[in-house]
Amino acid sequence: MNEEGFSSLLQLRHQTDCIGVILQFFGFKERICKLSLVCKDWMKLIKQLPIRIHLHQYSNWVGWDESNSKTYRKMIKSEFLNNLIGLEMSGCVSEDVKNVVKKYSKLEYLSVHNCHPRGAFAVAKYLPNLTALDFSESRILNIGSISIVKSENMRNLTSLNLDYCKVSEVFARELVSSPYMNNLNSLSLKCNNLKVEGVKILSQSPILSNLTFLKLERNRIGKEGLSYLCNSIHMNKLTSLNLKGNSLGDEGMEILTSHNSILKKLTLLNLSGNSITDEGIRTLVNSPDMSNLSSLYLGNNDGYRGWFKVYSLYNNYTKLAVEMIVESPFMKQLKNLQLIPMAEKDKVLLKSIPNLKIVSR
Q1: What's the rounded Cα separation, in Å, for the pair 354 and 350?
Q2: HEC profile for the chain?
Q3: Does the pLDDT value for residue 319 go beyond 70?
Q4: What pLDDT, on the 0 to 100 scale, is given for residue 308?
Q5: Cα(118)–Cα(137) distance, rounded to whole angstroms?
Q6: Residues 62-98: tens digit of each pLDDT
Q7: Topology given in CATH for the domain delimited by 194-361
Q8: pLDDT tens digits for 128-180?
């Protein structure tokens, strides 16, 4: 129980009440409902606690089944979730989403997977307190995504995840024209269809000037899209940038390092699956604007074939890439590095970088 929760607790009961004193020592929220069985006073008190609860209801591999809907219907009837502010749903139909969000209008965090546009419509209509929304792996398309960013109820959003939602430059245009998205600092658009035009629209908008996290993995932006991103005067607060699988190549590394405003604050950079060779890595690791980078992902640099990830036996780069990373004065602060595949002797060589961890994913 956090400090705010306990303060609220003491407002409900006298500070000398032994129940209030005892409850402050129970840190595991999953025990709260069991505690309600002690006596009526405990039950009454617990129903009023501002507790953050995350419920995970996962579907089987075929998606939705009736048992999921039954679970959500039971949840809505619960006496203990009136102050629910965090929820994760999966394998649900749009009607489930609508019923849940109508009941729990205090939600600040919501994650919904495997949903359709009508679920997005309901979220946009009933949840004025959301600060973080995750619709990843939902088929809400442009129409559902646009309903989110155009809703005044979404004015408090700081984090928006629309991975795999099948959005395009049409959504990007509506996002940047919305008067309610000014507070966004995290935007994830993995595996969509933004292409060059979508990135151009996002890059030229001041509405995204507070972004610190941006994921554009597998959006077919290419070198032209990267140029728009790097030329943006609104993206200079980014600390995490994911450009995985966008066919950037060595020329993309030249573009990236010649526009230092986007690199200077980056602590994480993902360039996996971009057909980068030794030459591109040399350009990258010798840029003085990479000096704040702590996580660098360069795996699978034979690139992608269409939408399918191809794991090859060899990357386009060689063992020289490891030597260049080790020798670069701007890579000494690295804490996480991905190079796939990597020989054991390369791992030994990389031990010369203090605190470095080799990551596989």
Answers
A1: 9
A2: CCHHHHHHHHHHCCCCCHHHHHHCCCCCHHHHHHHCCCCHHHHHHHCCCCCCCCCEECCECCECCHHHHHHHHHHHCCCCCCCCCEEEEECCCHHHHHHHHHHCCCCCEEEEECCCHHHHHHHHHHCCCCCEEECCCCCCHHHHHHHHHCCHHHCCCCEEECCCCCCEHHHHHHHHHCCCCCCCCEEECCCCECHHHHHHHHHCCHHHCCCCEEECCCCCCHHHHHHHHHHCCCCCCCCEEECCCCCCHHHHHHHHHCCHHHCCCCCEEECCCCCCCHHHHHHHHCCHHHCCCCEEECCCCCCEECCEECCCCCCCCCHHHHHHHHHCCCCCCCCEEECCCCCHHHHHHHCCCCCCEECCC
A3: no
A4: 34
A5: 15
A6: 455 566 788 788 888 877 778 888 888 887 888 999 9
A7: 3.80.10
A8: 999 999 999 999 999 999 999 999 999 999 999 999 999 999 999 999 999 99
For residue 306, name the pLDDT band (cuts at 50, 70, 90).
very low
CA distance 60 to 36: 32
pLDDT in tens, 201-217: 999 999 999 999 999 99
Domain chopping of the chain, boundaries: 1-51, 52-171, 194-361
Cis peptide, bond prior to residue 341, ω within 30 of zero: yes
What confidence score (pLDDT) does residue 161 get? 99
Q: Which residue has the tokens 């505690």?
A: 35
When the candidates are 3.40.50.150, 3.40.50.1820, 3.80.10.10, 3.40.50.2300, the CATH number that belongs to 52-171 is 3.80.10.10
Read off the amino acid at residue 281.
I
User: One fold for both 52-171 and 194-361?
Assistant: yes
242, 266 Cβ separation under 8 angstroms = no
In this prediction the pTM is 0.84
Which residues make beta-bridge pairs with 338? 297
pLDDT in tens, 63-73: 555 667 887 88
Task: Give the pair of three-digit tokens for residue 160.
Answer: 């928006």
